[in-house]
Amino acid sequence: MDRRKALKNMGLALGYTVATPTLISIVQSCKKDAAMVWTPDFLTSAEGSVLTHLVDIIMPKTDTPSASEVQVHIFIDRFADQVMEKEQQDLLKMTMGKFTDKALKDSGKKEIADLTPEDLEPVLASALKISKEDQAKNFKVINTYTEAVKTGQTATLDEEVSRFAFANNLRGLVIWGYKSSEFVGENVLSYLPVPGEYIACGDLQELTGGKAWSL
What is the pTM of this model? Predict the structure, then answer.
């Protein structure tokens, strides 16, 4: 499916849906930092390099910019640092480690800073290409793990489930960050500058041609 059409018609079903002052501040600060050499706030520099590769694998440049061109990698790192709770941060770090360990093993490389998109893409594809039944099983295991962590219990996730958890979470964050970017908000989604006409109830097809609203 054409990405532009997919984004136009994508609703609020991807999980990250609330626009808060913190979120808006993060989006704005990403644009300001884009012109500088990016130093991650939450991830290490090497992990930031991996993240940049991964967001562009998920959202490569087509008729619209790639994810990194609209600063999605900066957005995700900053969101993890400023918004995620400690348990979420720890889960992200741990599952990303399992993901990069697999990429290192398969590529024969020793340092994650040396991983290329060609090294990372097969791991990402493998983690996401599972049946709906296996996805449901993985989500159940992940939920059990997170609940155990919250209550101070000792818990572990096996490597395959960890890679799925990271890849699935990252995909959602990339799509959310991409839709939240200024370029996509103004040029791809339905955009109505403030102040604008407020229609409390109306048919989406009539109001926007079926497009999801921009932030």
Answer: 0.74
Contact 89, 42 (CB under 8 A): yes
d(CA 211, CA 10): 7
Give me 9's structure tokens.
């018609």
Bridge partners of 190, per DSSP, are 213
**Alpha carbons 195 and 15: distance in angstroms, whole number:** 27
Cβ within 8 Å of residue 11, ≥6 positions away: 212
Phi, psi dihedral angles at 175 (to 5 degrees): -65, -45
Give the CA dihedral 42, 67, 146, 11, nearest 10 degrees.
Answer: 140
Q: Using CA atoms, how far apart are residues 135 and 143, in angstroms rounded to an integer?
A: 12
Which range is least confidently modeled, 31-35, 51-55, 145-149, 164-168? 31-35
The 3-state secondary structure of 40-53 reads CCCCCHHHHHHHHH
In the predicted model, what is the mean pLDDT of residues 184-213? 53
- Distance set, CA 184 to CA 42, 72, 122, 148, 213 (Å): 25, 11, 28, 38, 11
Chain CA centroid to CA 193, Å: 26
